[in-house]
Amino acid sequence: MGSAKKSSAARTARVEEMRRAEQARERRNRILVVAASVVVVAGLVAGGVVLVRSQSDGDGGGSSAADDAKNAGKFVTDADGVRAWKGTLGRNHVTKSVDYPVTPPVGGDHNPVWMNCDGDVYEDEINDTNAVHSLEHGAVWVTYNGDAPKADVEALAAKVEKTPYTLMSPVDGQKDPIVLTAWGHQRTVTGAADPAVDAFLEKFVQGAQTPEPGAACTNGLSK
C-alpha cells in the first residue's frame, strides 16, 4: 500500500514538473512573439518614413536637385560650327514634363515613347520629351520658328521626308529661325540651301553620338 502511494506521488510530481516546464515554454514563446512583433512593427514604421521622405523628395511634380545636376552643363562650339553639350544628359524615362536647359533640348530624361522619326514632318509643335527620345535613337530633329522663310521650311520638309531617322516640327520658343539638333549636339543654319544642313545630317543621323544605335524610329507617336 505504501508503495502504491509513493508511486502515485511520484507521478503527480512528474506531472506537475511537466506542467511547470510547459508553462515556462509558453511564457518564453509569448515573450519571443512579442519581441518579434515589436521588431516587425518598428521595421514597417521605419520603412514607411523612408518611403514618404523619398516620395516627398523625388515626386513633387518639378525638377529635383538630382535632375538639375544631371542637366548642368554648357555648349562648346566646335570648329565646324556645331555646338556640343558638355555635361551629363540624363536618360531616365519620365512621364512628367522636364525643364530642359536649352530649347530645343539636346538630350536628357524623356518620355518612354518616342516621336516617329522616319522622315516624319509635323505641322504643329510636338512634346519635347518625346522628341528627345527620338534623339536617343539617333535621329536628327529639324526645328524652326515663325521667322523661318516659308520656302526654306518647305525645302527642309522635302529633305526630311527623304531621310530616315529625321523629324521636323515648329518650336516657337527657339531663338534662331532654323535649328538642327542631335543627341548632345546642335547648330543653326541660314536656310535649306546652307551646306551645313547636309553636313549635319551626314554626321549625326545614326552618328557616333547615338546612345541607342539601331533603335526604332517607327511605332512611336505620330502626333
TrEMBL record:
Residues 1-22 are annotated as: Disordered. This is DUF3105 domain-containing protein. The chain crosses the membrane at residues 31-52. Keywords: Membrane, Transmembrane, Transmembrane helix. Residues 13-22 have a biased composition (Basic and acidic residues). Residues 1-10 have a biased composition (Low complexity). InterPro entries: DUF3105. It comes from the Bacteria. Pfam families: DUF3105 (PF11303).
